[in-house]
């Protein structure tokens, strides 16, 4: 390894972080990268957008809160955190139960891809922008995401695999999203990321016998990064109130429903992983939705009615349809195609019915800023 390259945890920019990961890419396994390359409705994607429109965002209406948040990011409380230290326990990957090993590796690859997706988007905004407020924010956020992705890759390397981040940047397909969709989707993914990490962290704090891998010990500081990233998007939306009014409220509902249902389906695909953590995926899903909904009241004029009697049955219907879709695709042939078509239609219907559950109106507070409270 190039001795001049800093470890990704100590890097001050996304570029330094990635150089470190690139320097080790010789060991990257093709299969992990192939998994990260997948583009389905359920796998993490890479995004591109209208960077000029994003660069033109004005933060003056929230200047005071903005400066405080940026000061905090500039102080870089988590510098050096995302690397192995004496708290890192050795893992017997070969002795791990095969189903758990498979699901856990899938979890790590998918988390690494999601972290890296944020890094790539934020880094590109920083590179293309001219607005000092926007460039500085995206510099800090891409720095953090590069560390997160790098740390997961460090964990994967112990299992003899890792994701080739440089290759992904060049070769993975980019999906175009209008800036406003980027704000809704990234705000939500940052906040749900916070809620996911902190829920697991608190659960394992109370039940350490289920902590089957050391990476979970790092989740508290980790989720605080995601929380701050979410705060930045909340401020951007607060400064541009048309984003959360009128017809855009339907888009907010759409993104809430899409993000929540995707999480539900993905988590239910990993039963051995959740069993090893001592967590029921339905309990976990609902706990994460509650936290995310509570937080999103800082900026969204609605929340989803996650206690509605149809909520969980429809999520389960989507999940069943998705499992049938998987099986049909594996089967292939004409019968497989017909079955896949039918399963897709069922999933779409369940999603539409979730969208029809009336949302709960929310009075957005005057001041948007929140501190991590869970
Ligand atoms: Fe992250
Ligand atoms: Fe983040």
Defining traits:
single chain, 374 residues, mainly alpha, Ribonucleotide Reductase, subunit A, 2 domains, two-stranded parallel ribbon, 4 strands, binds fe (ii) ion
Question: Summed up, what is this model?
Answer:
This protein has 374 residues and is mainly alpha-helical. The chain has helices at 14-23, 30-37, 51-55, 63-75, 98-128, 132-157, 165-171, 179-206, 219-239, 248-268, 271-277, 281-296, 311-331, 333-356; strands spanning 46-48, 174-176, 302-303, 360-361.
Commentary on this structure:
Strands 1-2 form a two-stranded parallel sheet. Strands 3-4 form a two-stranded antiparallel ribbon. The longest helix is centred in the first third of the chain and has 31 residues. It is mainly α and 374 residues long. The chain has 14 helices and 4 strands. Helices cover 64% and strands 3% of the residues. The mean pLDDT is 93. 41% of the residues are buried. It folds into 2 domains: 288 residues, Orthogonal Bundle (Ribonucleotide Reductase, subunit A); 58 residues. The chain binds fe (ii) ion (2 copies). One fe (ii) ion binds next to α9.
């Amino acid at each position: 390894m190039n001795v001049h390259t800093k470890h990704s945890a100590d890097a001050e920019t996304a570029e330094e972080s990635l150089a470190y990961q690139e320097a080790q890419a010789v060991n990257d396994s093709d299969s992990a990268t192939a998994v990260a390359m997948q583009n389905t409705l359920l796998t993490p994607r890479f995004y591109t957008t209208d960077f000029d429109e994003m660069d033109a965002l004005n933060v003056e209406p929230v200047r005071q809160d903005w400066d405080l948040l940026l000061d905090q990011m500039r102080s870089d409380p988590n510098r050096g955190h995302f690397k192995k230290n004496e708290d890192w326990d050795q893992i017997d990957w070969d002795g791990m139960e095969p189903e758990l090993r498979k699901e856990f590796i899938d979890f790590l690859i998918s988390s690494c891809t999601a972290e890296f997706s944020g890094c790539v988007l934020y880094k590109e905004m920083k590179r293309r922008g001219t607005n000092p407020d926007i460039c500085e924010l995206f510099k800090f956020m891409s720095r953090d995401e590069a560390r997160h992705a790098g740390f997961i890759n460090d964990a994967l390397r112990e299992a003899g695999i890792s994701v080739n981040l440089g290759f992904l940047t060049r070769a993975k397909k980019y999906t175009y999203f209008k800036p406003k969709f980027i704000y809704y989707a990234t705000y939500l993914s940052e906040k749900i990321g916070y809620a996911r990490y902190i829920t697991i962290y608190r659960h394992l704090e109370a039940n350490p016998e289920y902590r089957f891998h050391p990476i979970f010990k790092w989740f508290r500081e980790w989720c605080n990064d995601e929380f701050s990233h979410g705060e930045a998007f909340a401020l951007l939306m607060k400064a541009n109130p048309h984003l959360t009014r009128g017809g855009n409220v339907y888009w907010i509902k759409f993104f809430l429903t899409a993000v929540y249902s995707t999480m539900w389906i993905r988590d239910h695909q990993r039963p051995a992983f959740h069993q090893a953590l001592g967590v029921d995926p339905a309990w976990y899903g609902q706990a994460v939705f509650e936290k995310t909904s509570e937080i999103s009241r800082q900026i969204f004029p609605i929340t989803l009615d996650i206690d509605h009697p149809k909520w969980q049955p429809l999520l389960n219907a989507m999940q069943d349809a998705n499992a049938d879709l998987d099986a049909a695709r594996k089967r292939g042939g004409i019968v497989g195609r017909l079955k896949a078509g039918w399963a897709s239609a069922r999933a779409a219907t369940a999603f539409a019915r979730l969208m029809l559950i009336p949302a709960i109106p929310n009075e957005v507070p005057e001041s948007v800023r929140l501190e991590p409270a869970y």
